[in-house]
Amino acid sequence: MMTGNEGKVTLVSAGPGDLDLLTLKAAKVLASADVVLLDDLVSPEIVTLAPQARVIRVGKRGGCRSTPQAFIERLMQRYARRGLHVVRVKGGDALLFGRAGEELAALRRAGVRVEIVNGVSSAFAAAAGLRVSLTHRDHCQGVIFVTAHLRDHSEPDWQALAATGMTLAIYMGMSRIESLCATLVGALPTTTPAAVVQWAGSANERRVTGTLGTIAAHARAAGLGSPAIILVGNAIGEAASFAISPASFGVHSHESSIEELRRRA
Amino acid sequence: MMTGNEGKVTLVSAGPGDLDLLTLKAAKVLASADVVLLDDLVSPEIVTLAPQARVIRVGKRGGCRSTPQAFIERLMQRYARRGLHVVRVKGGDALLFGRAGEELAALRRAGVRVEIVNGVSSAFAAAAGLRVSLTHRDHCQGVIFVTAHLRDHSEPDWQALAATGMTLAIYMGMSRIESLCATLVGALPTTTPAAVVQWAGSANERRVTGTLGTIAAHARAAGLGSPAIILVGNAIGEAASFAISPASFGVHSHESSIEELRRRA
Questions:
Q1: Is the bond preceding residue A16 a cis peptide, omega within 30 degrees?
Q2: Hey, where are the domains in chain A?
Q3: A-chain residues within 8 Å CB-CB of B116?
Q4: A with B: how many residue pairs have Cβ under 8 Å apart?
Q5: Contacts of B16 in chain A (CB under 8 A)
Q6: Angle at CA A18, nearest 5°, toward B31 and A79?
Q7: What does the alpha-carbon distance between residue A60 and residue A65 come to, in Å, rounded to a whole number?
Q8: B99 min Cα distance to partner chain A (Å)
Q9: Dihedral of CA A113/A118/A123/A125: which sign?
Q10: How far apart are the first and last CA of chain A?
Q11: For residues A212 and A189, is the Cβ–Cβ distance under 8 A?
């Protein structure tokens, strides 16, 4: 199949929120975009980096009022076939959750040229806010990125994941954090360190730390909801907030945590 | 403990190699660095972004001729205590493998202020080169990032990891790829798609695709070695190269794969 022109689609990873966490390459690609398709978890300010582009919002949050996936895929193909540079912007890294797999398959079937620009996924930003490695080698051999939001409304095998001894970085788990933690307690000690970070890597970042036994209640009490990352594992216990109390169970905004570190420095 | 000045350490993620895959924030931080401590997996050209900084190379590859970790940690503390801005540059994302956990703990003990700038880890770049999602929802619920290089020379429980059904992104596994694949075959079909991507996300990127049964031989035949990412799982089978043959088992450089996609478009 020949498109007969130079149109293409670039999947661009917008990172966790802060525009400064875009890559240099993402900024360059946006500057050359003719059309930008924007997810609604992406900071709206990103359009300032694509001044010449027509911007189309195609967000879909939790299934409601969504732009159908098939429509998004047709839109990308239509503009690319007109010879335009279509930039599909996705939050975090485009290749972790978020249905890039389906979009890539559709574009491949349609014979549309596609490129991908990586970015920072929000679990990394969550770890940065806590100032912990996801994989401190005293504690684990790796990290599992898993979504709690499965297409068929089933659940991942939490106990099998916990049994690996890896750090767990759970995406889209806030609606079921209580049951999720209760299930994990079947395979991990109740005292296993855990954290919830909402809007990780953005100016609105808020987080709580605790244990598998307490984190759900702490997160609810602090009013944390989606979008948030739930981190579980001994590596997370390296966070400074675990060493101080009772602040260790408080809510930390991005700014206050820096202040806290300044005070403690 | 008070350092009594404005010195600090910033852990900066250099991404997988291509300087364009640095974040805007990383570039800004480097521009303000007084001292840069550089790992040897980081592109040497990164120093052009830190024109005013004293650059110290502290690389350690595979344990030989290494700068001792304790020395690196003392160096960071010493310069920060002089009021300088020390930028510790790590390949990929600083919070995935690479001993950031130990460095953060040492800096915390020393009362040194620390910030972290995230980046793109090489498994994401490997997936981008293959044009696959790490977590295509037709195939899996997540991805496991695991290191094959354990401190005590033991092995991760490969079969338990495989049994989760997640995509596996294996770091530092090239020295034992044969035994690793043989062990995985105990838990996964021999036909499970697999790929090896060396220098992912850099101009030198090279990759082979195959199956759990063939990938080790393909990688050896193509001369691929460290640093490389081994990807295993059905999500990886979505790569375009699996749909074409016999090229599917050839070696693809970054440039040729773009050409190939152009031809097929």
A1: no
A2: 8-117, 122-264
A3: 127-128, 131
A4: 221
A5: 118
A6: 110
A7: 7
A8: 7
A9: negative
A10: 62
A11: yes
Local structure of B26: helix, strand or coil: helix
Most distant CA pair in chain A: distance in Å? 65
> Residue A223 burial by CB count (10 A; 0-12/13-18/19+): exposed, middle or buried?
exposed
Is residue A22 helix, strand or coil?
A: coil
Class of the domain covering B122-264: alpha beta
Which one of A39, A93, A166, A174 is the catalytic residue?
A39
A101, B137 Cβ separation under 8 angstroms:
yes
Strands B85-90 vs B114-117: parallel, antiparallel or unpaired: unpaired
Catalytic residue among B8, B39, B93, B166: B39
Mark yes or no for CB contact B118/A104 under 8 Å: no
Strand B167-171 relative to strand B142-147, pairing: parallel
What percent of chain A clears pLDDT 90, i.e. is strictly above it? Answer: 75
Give catalytic status of residue B39 as yes or no: yes
Report A:172-211 residues touching B (Cβ under 8 A): 201
pLDDT digits (tens, 9 = 90+) for A80-110: 999 999 999 999 999 999 889 999 999 999 9
pLDDT digits (tens, 9 = 90+) for B57-68: 987 654 445 678
Amino acid at A151: R
**Architecture of the domain made up of A8-117:** 3-Layer(aba) Sandwich (3.40)
- Residue A263 near chain B (CB below 8 Å): no
Tell me whether the CATH fold assigned to A8-117 matches the one assigned to A122-264: no
For B136, the token pair is: 């295509």
